[in-house]
Design brief:
The complex is a heterodimer of chains A (250) and B (286). By secondary structure, chain A is α/β, with parallel strands linked by helices. Chain A is 32% helix and 26% strand. Chain A is built from ten helices and ten strands. Chain A has helices at residues 57-64, 87-91, 110-115, 130-136, 138-142, 153-165, 183-198, 210-216, 234-238, 241-247, and strands at residues 17-28, 31-42, 46-50, 72-77, 80-81, 95-98, 171-175, 202-206, 219-224, 227-233. By secondary structure, chain B is mostly helical. Chain B has one domain (3-279). Helices cover 75% and strands 3% of the residues of chain B. Chain B is built from eleven helices and two strands. Chain B has helices at 3-34, 41-59, 62-83, 93-115, 142-164, 166-176, 178-183, 188-214, 220-235, 240-260, 265-279, and strands spanning 131-135, 138-141. A two-stranded antiparallel sheet of chain B has the order 1-2. Classes of the chains: A alpha/beta (250), B mainly alpha (286). The interface between A and B is medium-sized, with 27 and 17 residues. The complex binds adenosine-5'-triphosphate (ATP) and magnesium ion. Residues 28, 33, 51, 53-59, 100 of chain A line the site of adenosine-5'-triphosphate.
């Protein structure tokens, strides 16, 4: 019997898909917010989703996670069809989610917020433990017994990211994780995002900081009015300032 | 009034309060965490008492009867949540009130059909059926002390479960933001089924251990339901600590009210609630 060839041997063959969302349509009442969104993320790939306010970035994420019902389209996660599956099953296929607004549980302490989310990864991996999250965010170690509701915005964001990592995900989804934070804290968050990338976890990042996104991501998507108008390498996009100017205004 | 009467009534009040805590704790969790107003909670207390009466008459021993009745109560809780309450999470409180009020009518009718409308008594288990001397001229029934001990043990266990375990963390997180709990891969429906079934079983268990003291009669669930709601409001919705303190206050007030001002007794509890809400509009621990 022939030996199994690792996928990475063949450079031209891409890694398998972690997320494969096709033709997503989502309505809020009468308004047609997503109008046929395609979004693919390969294993280990770092992807950003850009666009002006209200273009449908958050809705795309919520539709993939089953938090908002799609009206048409298909979603498969890690090779399994998850269209209209329940959120907890979708997430359990290997996703760590940091929502817009951080999703804190105000009455839980930092330790509890992290411990309640702890679970081994899909392959049984337990790389991310409480200790490792506290090493990654030393500030949280100092606040370990504080209620999450009493933390600063930056500390809450660290809890949200640490909590998502406690799920030992294969894909980390960050929706506006640096929004409204002081420059030093932003730097800290970007450092952690880069470190997560180094460990081979895929990421989907929504953020306003285009420069940081262009530096860190492999691929970029730009959304305009519920449609993806650009899907290509971030490196190439960085060389097309007119595109960025037209669709994002930078 | 002499010292022994004071002691006896205070012990009775504490015991009654602790029993109310078992009922109110489930009610406050179901309300605070699942946002469900469950009027049928008192009916489960009644069902517990009737199950204890019926099974004791079959097997001859209250504790054996309780061991047999608890799984029945748990199963009822699971079925009620799974097939009825689950459809109410997204609906208005009025719909919840209507459905759970309907459940009261159904449980009362079933009680009448299955067990009739007579008042029944349940014998205290032999080894607890005596009294201890508290002072030289004061004896107190051991079974009432036993009830208090069991309730305190359950209260401590519940506190540890909610404060110290991962399940407890998830339950508290769900009260803050249930969508976020789902987004962390937790099947919150299963957690809700568990909370509801546990609350139901606690109310039924209260009816079971109370049955030798209170006797078993039609409509016993309703009066206890109203007091349990008073406890929840006084303690602050969703607060176990509040339910504990509120239950003791209500138990003592109801017991002492009956002794000191029999005509005013039924109003005393509401007066207590009014006074608490005057100073703490959202309850003691909201
Ligand atoms: N719950 C909702 N009900 C109705 N309309 C909504 C709802 N959530 C979002 N929308 C609308 O859907 C559109 C897309 O919103 P979405 O939050 O997905 O945009 P976004 O790209 O994430 O924007 P932002 O950069 O401001 O976060 C907007 O027009 C918004 O007003
Ligand atoms: Mg958004």
């Amino acid at each position: 019997m022939a030996a199994v060839t690792p996928l990475t041997d063949n450079v031209s063959r891409p890694a398998p898909l972690m997320v494969d969302a096709r033709g997503l349509h989502t309505h809020y009442g009468q308004s047609h917010v997503l109008q046929g969104v395609d979004l693919r993320i390969h294993r280990g790939e770092t992807v950003c989703l850009m666009g002006r306010n209200g273009m449908g970035k958050t809705t795309t994420i919520r539709s993939i996670l089953g938090l908002t019902r799609i009206t048409a389209g298909t979603v498969s996660i890690a090779g399994r069809d998850m269209t209209r599956a329940q959120t907890h099953d979708i997430v359990a296929s290997g996703i760590g989610y940091v929502p817009e607004g951080r999703g804190m549980f105000p009455s839980l302490t930092v330790r509890e917020s992290l411990e309640m989310a702890a679970r081994p990864g899909v392959d049984g991996r337990r790389d991310w433990t409480l200790e490792r999250v506290l090493e990654t965010f030393p500030r949280l170690a100092e606040r370990i017994n504080h209620k999450a509701g009493n933390l600063s915005g930056g500390e809450q964001q660290m809890v949200a990211i640490g909590r998502a990592l406690m799920l030992n995900p294969d894909l980390l989804i960050l929706d506006e994780a640096t929004e409204g934070l002081a420059p030093l804290i932003r730097k800290e968050i970007w450092r952690v995002i880069a470190m997560v990338k180094e460990t081979g976890i895929a990421s989907l990042i929504v953020d306003k900081n285009v420069n940081a996104l262009m530096r860190i991501t492999d691929r970029s998507l730009i959304m305009v009015k519920g449609q993806v108008v650009y899907d290509g390498s971030s490196h190439e996009l960085a060389g097309k300032p007119q595109l960025l100017q037209q669709h994002i205004g930078v | 009034m002499d010292l022994s009467l004071f002691l006896i009534q205070t012990l009775n009040g504490v015991q009654y309060g602790l029993l109310l805590f078992l009922i109110a704790s489930g009610l406050t969790l179901i309300f605070g965490i699942m946002h469900i107003i469950n009027l049928a909670h008192g009916a489960l207390y009644m069902v517990g008492a009737y199950l204890a009466f019926w099974l004791t008459s079959l097997v001859g021993n209250l504790f054996l009867a309780i061991i047999l009745a608890l799984p029945i109560a748990l199963m009822m809780g699971i079925l009620i949540e799974r097939f009825l309450i689950r459809h109410l999470y997204a609906r208005a409180h009025l719909d919840q009130v209507l459905l759970t009020f309907g459940l009261i009518l159904i449980f009362n009718a079933l009680q009448s059909i299955i067990w009739g409308n007579d008042v029944h008594s349940v014998p205290v288990p032999e080894w607890l059926n005596h009294s201890v001397a508290l002072t030289d001229n004061l004896r107190y029934p051991v079974y009432r002390l036993f009830i208090s001990g069991v309730c305190i043990t359950i209260a401590i266990g519940m506190y540890l479960l909610i404060q110290r375990t991962r399940l407890g963390m998830i339950v508290r997180a769900g009260a803050d933001d249930r969508e976020m709990v789902r987004s962390l891969g937790v099947n919150i429906n299963r957690v809700y089924t568990l909370v509801f079934a546990a609350g139901t079983a606690l109310a039924a268990f209260a009816g079971m251990i109370a049955s030798p003291v209170s006797s078993v009669y039609p409509g016993m669930g309703e009066s206890v339901l109203i007091l349990a709601f008073v406890v929840v409001v006084i303690g602050g919705i969703g607060s176990i600590k509040g339910a504990f303190l509120g239950a003791l206050l209500v138990g003592l007030t109801a017991t002492w009210g009956t002794v000191l001002a029999p005509n005013f007794a039924s109003a005393a509890v509401y007066a207590l609630m009014a006074i608490v809400l005057l100073f703490k509009p959202r309850g003691l621990f909201a």
